[in-house]
Design brief:
Elements: H1 2-34, E1 37-50, E2 53-64, H2 67-87, E3 96-97, E4 101-104, E5 115-125, H3 131-141, E6 145-146, E7 150-152, H4 156-182, E8 187-193, E9 201-209, E10 212-229
Antiparallel strand pairs: 1-10, 2-5, 2-6, 2-7, 3-5, 4-5, 8-10, 9-10
Length: 230
């Protein structure tokens, strides 16, 4: 009888101990799951491809006392600039021209006399290896202002996506290094800061290839990714 009571007592103690042990383990598992290590890693990606062309914007301005002579003079400059653009690699079909604007100089500067006329011309050029030479010739032909040529590339969005993919892969590589140092096996992506975020940058850079400036274009992405680690 005493032995049976003792055995029951020990069995109950074992159940209590097992329950307590399970409760302690459950508590630590809960703490482990609900308190992950939060880390932020960065990554960069770059894609370099040949430039497909450039967009040129040219402003032509003419001033004078006689409105008729101002109009004649700017028309002559327009013809000369357009000819220079076409003969130096600008696609004639791509040329677009704003409507001529003629106004009294007094509308701009109080008390000024005479008239001012202005026209803007935009065109596409496929050969970007000698843009500086083209700009010089445009000024020689009568251009008043030649804006900084905008280098362009085909499939810009695809290139940005490829650069972003490379940046994410770089961030993943950096995360693996952190995981090994912190001895973490599991992870969860919390957020990825992209182009709309201040911590993500997108850059387009003209590079130099075999001595020809502007023959290739570099699309770069930088991302910042927040992870939870266990």
């Amino acid at each position: 009888m005493t032995r049976r009571i003792y055995d029951e007592y020990m069995d109950n103690n074992k159940k209590y101990l097992v329950g307590l042990f399970a409760l302690i383990i459950g508590f630590f598992v809960y703490r482990y799951i609900t308190n992950p290590l939060v880390v932020t890693v960065s990554g960069t990606g770059k894609v370099t491809v040949p430039a497909s062309g450039a967009r040129l914007s040219v402003s032509i301005v003419e001033t004078g006392d006689d409105v008729n002579k101002v109009e004649e003079a700017i028309k002559a400059k327009i013809a000369a600039v357009r000819l220079s653009m076409v003969t130096n690699g600008v696609n004639e079909k791509s040329l677009s021209q704003t409507q001529m604007q003629i106004m009294p100089l007094s509308a701009v500067v109080s008390g000024a006399k005479g008239y001012s006329a202005q026209v803007n011309i935009v065109g596409q050029v496929s050969d970007v290896s000698n843009l500086s030479g083209l700009v010089v010739k445009l000024y020689q032909s009568g251009a008043s202002i030649v804006s900084q040529p905008v280098i362009e590339v085909e499939n810009q969005q695809e290139l940005e996506n490829a650069a972003l993919k490379m940046a994410m892969a770089d961030a993943d590589k950096n995360l693996k290094m952190v995981s090994r140092l912190k001895m973490k096996l599991f992870r969860k992506t919390v957020s990825v800061q992209q182009a709309s975020s201040g911590n993500t940058s997108t850059a387009t850079k003209v590079t130099e290839n075999e001595g020809n400036v502007g023959t290739s274009i570099e699309v770069a992405k930088a991302v910042s990714v927040v992870y939870q680690l266990w």
